[in-house]
Amino acid sequence: MYDYLIVGSGLFGSIFAFEARKKGYSCLVVEKRGHVGGNIYTKEVEGIQVHEYGAHIFHTGNKEVWEYIRQFAEFNRYTNSPIAYYKGEIYNMPFNMNTFNKMWGVVTPEQARKKIAEQIEKYGVDEPKNLEEQAISLVGKDIYEKLVKGYTEKQWGRRATELPPEIIRRLPVRMTYDNNYFNDCYQGIPIGGYTQMIERMLDGIEVRLDTDYLEEKEELDNICHKIVYTGPIDAYYDYKYGELEYRSVRFETEVLDEENHQGNAVVNYTEYEVPYTRIIEHKHFEFGTQPKTVVSKEYSAPWKRGDEPYYPVNNERNNLLYEKYASDAAREEKVIFGGRLGKYKYYDMHHIVAEALACARENL
Ligand code: FAD
């Protein structure tokens, strides 16, 4: 008999397992994929750590989280500074003085502010009825047309004029020449990839790969006292109230026989006519100098059951549906629900670390 059965070897399940083992509890981790790590899994190709399920940059403003995660890996000084490609032009992201200088030739923050205000005055509306009007009312036409429109339309699979304004509440503009995407004070990539970080968490813990808990529920329930379930909550309840919706992402990954393909880890393609949203060049996350390179084109994709669920669609319908499942979950005595799928919420890795630690504190 195990004290804990942990369903899913992603970041949440692995941290919980580590904490449980530390306290002397016996654990079994079951994972339906053929590898540990969930979506932060990285795989070595040509000496390069490839982020198989999308680019993952660890960032946090929480010192406790930062100290905690660094016991499992050494982090490098990677700083996320994506660039945007629009019809042959390159712009810095997030929107900052470098972006405005390239767009309009302005040099000082005062000039940039004036230019944006002019644009909003000329094209903005008081009560935006769709995403296009909303975005233009926030940053003006030029930034919207070149850097927001096509990217957002590809992400949502719909034209900006058909999307609700609420999707974009704010479009932060930064009046400094600072290309660092995140405002958090701690940021980096684990040297040697995320998988080895997870392997350290799971060191000494029994893990069964290629094991779908829901397919072997009865036997597995019988060999443990408690369960930590990090899979989709609606699947746990056999979709009895209906299906929660996600947006998915499709990756096309290839090895290129060149040393440096795009000079940056992340390049966003902001024009609608280019079908992918981003190209990731993985070696740049670790300042790699390997002779070859690996790139992944990212395509935003609709989701149907069986596809990889990436981004929860937290609209009114889905949130209400989730509440129904969550109230059933709250009545469970043996099962704890956690992680992005168990809580149907978009969590960054630092949120997951904090949530998993809180869950461990509460239950162990
Ligand atoms: P998961 O990693 O999904 O782990 C759940 C595990 O449970 C999976 O391995 C799954 O196979 C397994 N499982 C599910 N059902 C079953 C079952 N029935 N039986 C057995 N096993 C099961 N965060 C950042 O901080 N920075 C970033 O740059 C960043 N980029 C991202 C990019 C993309 C494209 C996406 C989608 C997310 C990104 N994130 C990022 C968020 C990050 O991926 C998550 O915070 C984190 O992976 C969530 O961990 P988890 O353990 O909750 O879920």
Present as ligands are:
flavin-adenine dinucleotide
User: What is the class of the largest domain in the CATH system?
Assistant: Alpha Beta
Q: Largest sheet, described in full? A: 7 strands, mixed
Q: State the strand order across the main sheet.
A: 7-6-12-13-14-11-15
- Proportion of residues in helical segments: 25-40%
What's the rounded overall pLDDT mean? Answer: 96
- What is the name of the CATH architecture of the largest domain? 3-Layer(aba) Sandwich
Domain module tally? 2
Helix/strand/pairing category: alpha/beta
CATH superfamily of the largest domain: NAD(P)-binding Rossmann-like Domain
Keywords: FAD, Flavoprotein, Isomerase
Protein name: UDP-galactopyranose mutase
GO molecular function: flavin adenine dinucleotide binding; UDP-galactopyranose mutase activity
Organism: Extibacter muris
Overview of this structure, please?
GO terms for molecular function: flavin adenine dinucleotide binding; UDP-galactopyranose mutase activity. Keywords: FAD, Flavoprotein, Isomerase. InterPro entries: UDP-GALP_mutase, UDP-GalPyranose_mutase_C. Belongs to the UDP-galactopyranose/dTDP-fucopyranose mutase family. It holds the Pfam family NAD_binding_8. By secondary structure, this protein is of the alpha/beta class. It has two domains: 184 residues, NAD(P)-binding Rossmann-like Domain (Rossmann fold), CATH 3.40.50; 73 residues, no CATH class. It contains twelve helices and 16 strands. A seven-stranded mixed sheet has the order 7-6-12-13-14-11-15. Strands 9-2-1-10-16 form a five-stranded parallel sheet, with helices on one face. A two-stranded antiparallel sheet has the order 3-4. Helix 1 links the parallel strand 1 and strand 2. Helix 1 runs parallel beside helix 12 and helix 4 runs antiparallel to helix 5. The two termini are 17 Å apart. The site of flavin-adenine dinucleotide (FAD) has 34 residues, from helix 1, helix 11 and helix 12.
